[in-house]
Amino acid sequence: MIGGLYSELEAFEAILQHGSFTAAARQLQVTPGAITRRLNTLEARLGAKLLNRSTRRLSLTEPGRHYYAEVAPALAQILAAGERVHDLSLQPRGELRVSLPMNFGRLYVMPRVSAFLERHPGIDLDLQFDDRFVDLIGDGFDAAIRIGALTDSRLVARRIAQTRRILVASPDYLARRGAPSTPAELIEHDCLHYTLFRDTPTWEFQREREPLRVPVRGRLKANYGVPLVEAAVAGGGIVQSATFAVAQELASGQLVEVLPDWSLVPIGIYAVYPGREYRPRKVEAFIDFIEETIGQPAVWDRVIGAGEG
Question: What is the CATH number of domain 94-163+268-308?
Answer without folding.
Answer: 3.40.190.10
